[in-house]
Amino acid sequence: MARPTPLSGFPEWLPAERAVETHVLDVLRRTFELHGFAGIETRAVEPVEELLRKGETSKEVYAVSRLHDEGGSSSEKRLGLHFDLTVPLARYVLEHAGKLVFPFKRYQIQKVWRGERPQEGRFREFTQADVDVVGSETLPFHYEVELPLVMAEALSALPVPPVRIAVNNRKIAEGFYTGIGLTDVEGALRAIDKLAKIGPDAVAELLEKDAGATPEQARQALQLAAISGSDAGVAERVRALGVSTPLLEEGLSELVALVEAAEERVPGTVVADLSIARGLDYYTGSVYETTLVGHEDLGSICSGGRYDSLASDGSRTYPGVGLSIGVSRLVARILGAGLATASRAVPTAVLVAVGSEEERRRSEDVAAALRARGIPTDVAPTAAKFGKQIRHADRLGIPFVWFLGAEGHEVKDIRSGDQEAADPATWTPPAEDLLPTVQRT
Q1: pLDDT of amino acid 5
Q2: 370 partner at 20 to 30 Å CA-CA among 16, 61, 165, 284?
Q3: How far apart are CA 287 and CA 273, in angstroms?
């Protein structure tokens, strides 16, 4: 086989890097389950027409076909790899609604695929972690408060800098725009969503050109987007702009309830930011974007919001609220910026030395006894000199080497050089050495 050519956009971590990713996934999974979310996994493919329903993602979808389907003669539907976990969730809820209990709290950690240009923090194949609460016909507002608090807890347990979760409520913008006579609400939201990238002057031009705003309406929309804070003062600053509609007041009430609850539970983490628009048109209430403090150049690592219609079967509608973490994006930054390292590249805590190939069976018996007690153990690959076997363990980061004797065994901590008598039926390594750990750097 010729030397392989790397494919850009498809990350493959080395073992020590994979240990960091596994730690991140374990923390997320554990936190989600502590809050009552059930894990699911959906198929990797969906019908292409379902993936392209919004009409804006055709360039991102990887189509799937069988090599022997000559000329496209198969009667099977065209399939594509899912580009997020929301479309599969909508289908899953509709398909299994009769077997689910609502509100349905689910988390999902899977690979997704997007055919976009790879760049820092953006991949063609990556792992995503989603949490959603889906209701049947109705979904109480308190879930819009719960979701960012769950995510704040999960992210605070990861080896990353503090996070800032910026929140807004789509009802505020829609109510405000209606109050100033701006009719193309969706167009205005799409323009405001570009504020951080292109600045207020360019956004004002977009508001006038694409959303039909007058210069005065564009100025007012930008005034609204400039407001931020973490208490009820946010609502007062919005009201000071002189616009009042029932929808605006409803959105302000919900936003204040969210930021005040968050300030009590996770002080300094959640802030109202009325520039957060989330340009997708299916959001109807709270919206969220999360950045790493000091790493804002990475953009949002976790985003989402409330949607009143995840899916509908014609007779019943399923509203929901959810957040999604770009796990690969986050792990790439952790590794690239040296934010954390794994204590070793392999799970092995003990390497059992081999005195000679004739004695390998005895070494394997010791390893089996240790494994039976939950201690990750490997056996040396060759009966080389003990110094070489110790160096092999050291290269892998294995902390202990086990030596067999005629009348008893000894185990050596190769980091400190300490060596002691040991019995495979009773010896246990310190808890912190039993499995690889991930440390902040």
Answers
A1: 84
A2: 16
A3: 10
- φ, ψ for residue 269 (rounded to 5)? -95, -40
CB contact set of 432 (below 8 Å; sequence gap of 6+): none
- The token pair that represents 264 in the structure block: 């009590």
Whole-number Å distance between alpha carbons of 110 and 406: 50
Largest CA distance in the chain: 91
Give dist(CA 184, CA 159) in Å, integer: 43
What lies within 8 Å, CB to CB, of 130 at 6+ separation is 85, 86, 89, 107, 108, 109, 304, 322, 323, 324, 325
Can the peptide bond before residue 103 be classed as cis, meaning omega within 30 degrees of 0? yes
User: Looking at beta carbons, which pairs linking 96-100 to residues 24 or more positions away fall under 8 Å?
Assistant: 97/136, 97/313, 97/316, 97/318
pLDDT band at 328, cuts 50/70/90?
Answer: very high
